[in-house]
Design goal:
The protein has 291 residues and is α/β, with parallel strands linked by helices. It has two domains: 131 residues, Periplasmic binding protein-like II (D-Maltodextrin-Binding Protein, domain 2, 3-Layer(aba) Sandwich), CATH 3.40.190; 103 residues, Periplasmic binding protein-like II (D-Maltodextrin-Binding Protein, domain 2, 3-Layer(aba) Sandwich), CATH 3.40.190. Helices cover 37% and strands 22% of the residues. It contains ten helices and ten strands. Strands 1, 2, 3, 4, 5, 6, 7, 8, 9 and 10 form a ten-stranded mixed β-sheet that branches. β1, α3 and β2 form a beta-alpha-beta unit. α3 runs antiparallel to α10. The longest helix has 17 residues. The radius of gyration is 26 Å and the shape is elongated. 38% of the residues are buried. The N terminus and C terminus are likely disordered.
């Protein structure tokens, strides 16, 4: 049996391809299936203390938003602030204190921000050491202490704790404790690492940073509640965000009950005072108070 053949001319082929391209452009389902999926990438600048919970929130968000990826950089808030001020690509910004986020808001670099989590500070010491038993011991002569630099939030909070202790203990506690500092670190993870490596007698970190792995090498000493300072994280969408709607959806996720459950699972304190902020009345830093 013979079969008829119908040769396809170049003109006919061109018409066929043109029609297919038109179908793709119009979003016809059959044509869309052959088009490579688009990927949207968000950039996040995140304070180091939130590495654990924010990484989990990113994974949750990506699961419910196919084609969306989030690239996060984790380090000290003061470094992230400098990066944003220098024009670094950013959709989401998480600050570990009010001063930095309020400054960025005043500079119109972020949209109104929200308090997203609350945490407190503790002392960490090498597990085998018994030289430090309380906050008061940080002022003992010869103690090797590690804290954050003055402009990183953990460094600010540590100095406020020392000032509170100075008023309570007297005897120049603040001056003596600061004289014992052998290393100033740019973020809280670096402070913890110095103690984990037994390069210091003590360090002041967030309780949330002392995970199961760290507890193999360090002990936690609680700071008296009346002398401690509440650390707070603030989250905002960058004013020049390339994908602002998606960024706002991520902020909403972090503030939602499901998002808050993630923070609590990582050891953050429960805090029901989440609310939008961003006015100059919140720029003084007075929002940080005793735990």
């Amino acid at each position: 049996m013979s079969h008829s053949s119908f040769p396809i001319t170049r003109r006919a082929l061109a018409r066929t391809l043109g029609a297919f391209v038109t179908l793709v452009a119009l979003g016809v389902p059959g044509a869309m299936s052959v088009r490579a999926a688009e990927t949207i990438s968000l950039k996040a600048l995140v304070a180091a203390n939130a590495t654990g919970p924010f990484t989990e929130l990113i994974a949750d968000f990506e699961k419910t938003h196919p084609g969306v990826t989030i690239e996060a950089s984790f380090t000290g808030t003061q470094i992230l602030t400098q990066q944003l001020e220098a024009g670094a690509p950013c959709d989401i910004f998480l600050s570990a204190d009010l001063d930095h986020i309020a400054k960025l808001r005043d500079e119109k670099l972020v949209e109104p921000y929200r308090q997203i989590s609350r945490l407190h500070e503790v002392i960490v010491v090498p597990k085998s050491s018994r030289a430090i038993a309380s906050l008061r011991d940080l002022a003992k002569l010869g103690t090797k202490l590690v804290i954050g630099v003055a402009d990183v939030p953990i460094g600010k909070y540590t100095r406020r704790i020392f000032e509170n202790a100075d008023r309570s203990y007297g005897g120049d506690f603040n001056k003596l404790a600061l004289a014992n500092v052998v290393s100033f670190e740019v973020n809280v993870k670096a402070v913890l690492q110095k103690v984990v490596l037994d390069e210091a007698d003590a360090g002041v970190v967030y309780r949330t940073d002392v995970d199961a792995e760290a507890l193999k090498a360090v002990r936690v000493i609680e700071i008296p509640k009346e002398l401690n300072v509440a650390g707070k994280n603030y989250l905002a969408v960058a004013s020049h965000a390339e994908h602002a709607d998606l960024a706002r959806a991520l902020v909403d996720l972090a503030a939602s009950p499901a998002g808050q459950a993630v923070f609590i699972r990582f050891g953050y304190d429960r805090d029901l005072s989440l609310r939008k902020r961003g006015s100059k009345t919140h720029a003084s830093g007075a929002d940080s108070h005793h735990v």
